[in-house]
Amino acid sequence: MNNKKWYGFNMTWLFAMGDRKEVAPAEIVINENELDFIADMGCNFVRVPTDYRFWTRNFDYENRDENMLKRLDACIEAVVSRGMHCSLNVHRAPGYCINGAELEKHNLWEDKVAQDAFVSLWKFFAERYASYNIDQLSFDLLNEPPNIGQYGMTRDIHEQLMRRTASVIRSVTKNRQIVLDGLCGGNEAMPELADLGVIHSTRGYQPMSVTHYQASWCPYAQTGKVPIYPGTEWEGKIWNRDTLLEHYSPWKALADKGVTVHVGEFGCFDKTDHKTAMNWFNDLFSVYRELGWGFSLWNFIGEFGIIGHNRSGTIWENIKGFRVDKELYELIKEYME
Fold this sequence. Notes:
- By secondary structure, the protein is α/β, with parallel strands linked by helices.
- It has ten helices and twelve strands.
- It has an eight-stranded parallel β-barrel.
- A hairpin with a 2-residue loop joins strand 11 and strand 12.
- The protein is globular.
- The chain starts with 6 loop residues before the first strand and ends with a helix.
């Protein structure tokens, strides 16, 4: 396995939250300047979360829209052509998504048709992208599996599905790098899959009372209090750098056994003020450096990004034609090794 640390961003070209309007292939536009900016920062990684509904209609899983898939091809090539690693992620899979699973016809954890479609999709990708070497492309199988028991998911069902999918991928490209997101929305480590020879992907959104303050899609993260950091109370803990380290202790245990750990997503919604957010970012980055993990911000442009957010108190600077959150930009660069 390639142990080079990955640093970069999530790019949401083929991502959708909940209900999705029909999108024509021509609407999938890759901003080359954004990718050039990311590469010029010194980043070596771009994660591409995708929604299978972009190339599938009416739950007809095997009937894929080739014109839309060509846009996915272009997304991957745009990343790889700049010398960065592309991580292809299925964010919405047949039968499951952390955002709006009720929109699915089938259940990935209970229905064989959804599980077969999931495995078939990854075999299809493995064959379609077999020409890319392991330094260029990895497969992040499923974004943020649910809590144990939610939607009928159990550790055994999840383990069996991931092992089956990894086996199919490796039947095409033996050494393809595979990424598995943690359970419970990416937060819970999976020691039962430590032997699979894959990268385990965690998340950087704790405490959510800070990172998802006033986020409409996360009502459970709202405490009714303006967040502070350090010192906010969340899930029975007072959060600071030590609490963050404690949160990641099961993941460190995996890493101590030789498992590669990567932070596939992290970030802070822009309703949290800049000073509080930066206090949290500073601790988070220092923890990742101590643990030896790479990271990928969600996302580049938007409410969580380094560009295009509305966080109060931000210092903005024009960098290569972009209006950039200067402190967050510099902090990311500082903590990339």
